[in-house]
Amino acid sequence: MKCPQCGLFNPPSAMRCDCGWDFNSKTMKESYLKNTAPAISGNYSSNGSCQNDHGQLKRQRIGFALVLFAGVWMMGGGFFLLSINAVSARLFGSLFAISGAASAVRGALGLMLLKSRTP
Q: What's the domain count of the chain?
């Protein structure tokens, strides 16, 4: 049967809808469901609202900033090795420059995504 209050379909044997609508008395009552939202990310209060863990966001910002800094550092080392006139130095310089650029991009994108996500 369909709940007239919220529109949820319930089994025919249901006495009360999840929203709290009592089918026998045709009145709103307290729901049998308890509001126990799992704490996946952040702290949930007793009313179910989430308060962000600002410490976690700060640690993520620091991590992405370190990845960005390390990537720029690796790119600089790679370009330095590219300036040396040896085949192995050029090979390692290319690898350093490419992986450094990838790390720098990952760090910058991570910082931008975190900034757009924070209140």
A: 2
